[in-house]
Amino acid sequence: MRSFFLSIIVIIQLCVPGRSIAQHMKIDPKSTKFEFRTKLFGRQLPKVKAGGCTGEAALDPEHLNKSFLKLRIDMQHLQAGSEDDTRTLKRQSFFNTDKYPFLTINSEKISQSTPGSTVYLADAMLTLKGIMHPVKIQFTANPLADGYRLIGTLTLKTSEWYIGGKGDLDDPLICFWELKLLKH
């Protein structure tokens, strides 16, 4: 009898307008890219690739208040143009990957740039090197048969994250990211 009432409650929750639940989606690790451009001692590096991305998300254009992004980007296995550049970027004065192996992005607030658009804005907290700052991340969400492909960029000031020293450099750290969200 108890399971019957619980079933009725679940059906009501799913059928009542405004009570829909955004579908949780997993991130397809094979279709994920997180790359960035930065300077190393005044020299522009080729794209630096992070080790990968894990996390979860929900994106429902009809109910954005139920949408979220929780990403964890592997910085410990980043790859720069050369082994020397990779070692330098992993050092304490840059990304300090031994102590802080991940960059995280957490957003509970996602909005569309204009109604009906595929361009979204996530108000997020980004943690890098143990430093947390609010950021706004613009991305495009292209619907796929089995989920969404998200593509975006984000520019960070290296001085705010103490990348390359004690905040005396102010070169931009430009992040390019692409990930595929798969419906369960």
Listing every helix as H and every strand as E from the N terminus to the C terminus, the arrangement reads: HEEEEEEEHEEEEE
CATH level-4 homologous superfamily: Lipid/polyisoprenoid-binding, YceI-like
**CATH level-two architecture:** Beta Barrel
Please report the first level of CATH classification, the CATH class: Mainly Beta
Apparent shape? elongated
* Estimated radius of gyration: 19 Å
Walk me through the topology.
Elements lengths: L1 H14 L8 E4 L5 E5 L1 E2 L2 E2 L3 E2 L2 E7 L9 E7 L8 H8 L11 E11 L6 E10 L2 E14 L2 E11 L14 E12 L1
Antiparallel strand pairs: 1-6, 1-12, 2-5, 2-12, 3-4, 6-7, 7-8, 8-9, 9-10, 10-11, 11-12
Structure, briefly:
The chain is mostly beta strands. The chain is built from two helices and twelve strands; from the N terminus they run H-E-E-E-E-E-E-E-H-E-E-E-E-E.
Task: Name its key features.
184 residues; mainly beta; Lipocalin; 8-stranded antiparallel barrel; 12 strands
Structural write-up:
There is one protein chain. It is elongated and about 45 Å long. Mean pLDDT is 85; it is low at 2-20. The chain has one domain (23-183): Beta Barrel (Lipocalin), CATH 2.40.128. The protein has two helices and twelve strands. The protein is mainly beta and 184 residues long. The two termini are 30 Å apart. The protein has helices at 2-15, 83-90; strands spanning 24-27, 33-37, 39-40, 43-44, 48-49, 52-58, 68-74, 102-112, 119-128, 131-144, 147-157, 172-183. A hairpin with a 2-residue loop joins strand 10 (131-144) and strand 11 (147-157). The strands form two sheets. An eight-stranded antiparallel beta barrel has the order 1-6-7-8-9-10-11-12. A two-stranded antiparallel sheet has the order 3-4.
